[in-house]
Write a structure and sequence with these properties.
Number of strands: 12
Shape: globular
Oligomer: single chain
Structural class: mainly beta
CATH class: Mainly Beta
CATH topology: Jelly Rolls
Order of helices and strands: EEEEEEEEEEEHE
């Protein structure tokens, strides 16, 4: 299984308003969701990993850089891992699915951006499957240019 899968969404507008959607079958079995809003572009949420829990991300306003690392050793990852970078924006309508066994780093690229997060575990199970690494372990977040 790939550590991250990007699905393309779309939108439709008429006199009644706008629908944003991802009509492809979204793999996964999600138990909960939450919204994450970054008031500015200086905030970085990195690195949070889940050995088993699957997550999915969709920008509902603004834009985000999401970096994904699937290390060969999850509990003791090398400093030399190479992240995959994904840009999620309100305009590109991409839906990012991240499998268990991955660490994610998240940074808003525009102020007041909001991200929808889907989680495959309930809160208690998610906390039991939570691993952390230092924020700058794999990325110099100030140099991100997508």
């Amino acid at each position: 299984m790939k550590p991250a899968t990007l699905l393309q969404g779309s939108s439709f507008s008429d006199e009644r308003g706008t629908l944003q959607f991802v009509n492809e079958k979204i793999p996964g079995n999600y138990r909960r969701f939450y919204l994450m809003t970054h008031p500015d572009t200086n905030i970085v949420r990195a690195w949070q990993g889940h050995k088993h829990e699957e997550k999915a991300f969709y920008a509902i306003s603004g834009s985000f850089c999401i970096a994904v690392v699937a290390p060969s050793s999850f509990e003791n990852p090398s400093d030399n891992e190479t992240p995959q970078f994904f840009k999620l924006t309100i305009d590109n309508k991409n839906f990012l699915r991240v499998s268990g066994g991955s660490y994610t780093g998240i940074k808003a690229l525009t102020p007041h951006s909001t991200l929808l997060v889907l989680s495959g575990f309930d809160l208690a199970a998610s906390k039991a499957d939570d691993y952390r690494q230092p924020v700058n372990k794999w990325v110099d977040w100030d140099s991100i240019d997508l």
